[in-house]
Design goal:
The chain is mainly alpha-helical. Helix content is 61%, strand content 8%. The protein has helices at residues 3-12, 20-27, 32-41, 60-94, 99-102; strands at residues 18-19, 46-48, 55-58. The two termini are 38 Å apart.
């Protein structure tokens, strides 16, 4: 899928039910209601669960696939962040910046 749609799917897959407003809050954009309605209308594995079509859920197998991919991406982002802070702390300490002044030390980063 296009990057914008992919972000919507992955970030909203972490909840059991999703509304346009909740999706907007999770992904930091607007118009998620339209995206969810379009996905339902085009058989995009999205199912409306109320009569007003404000709340949706993903098809169970599709949701499982999305959650697995989202967890992998989150783990990769966490690892990259950990590597960044470890490298940055090393550079700062090598440059003679006292550890007390670094101030951005993260748990587990040495």
């Amino acid at each position: 899928p296009p990057p914008k749609l992919r972000a919507v799917l992955l970030r909203t897959s972490l909840v059991e039910r999703i509304s346009g407003d909740l999706a907007d809050a999770l992904i930091g954009q607007t118009s998620s209601s339209d995206t969810l309605a379009d996905l339902e209308r085009t058989n995009g594995f999205v199912i409306g669960i109320d009569s007003r079509r404000e709340w949706y859920r993903y098809h169970r197998l599709f949701a499982k696939l999305l959650r697995t991919r989202a967890q992998r991406e989150l783990a990769a982002m966490h690892a990259a962040g950990h590597d960044f802070f470890r490298a940055a702390n090393g550079v700062w300490l090598t440059a003679g910046v006292p550890a007390a002044f670094i101030g951005t030390r993260r748990e587990g980063v040495r």
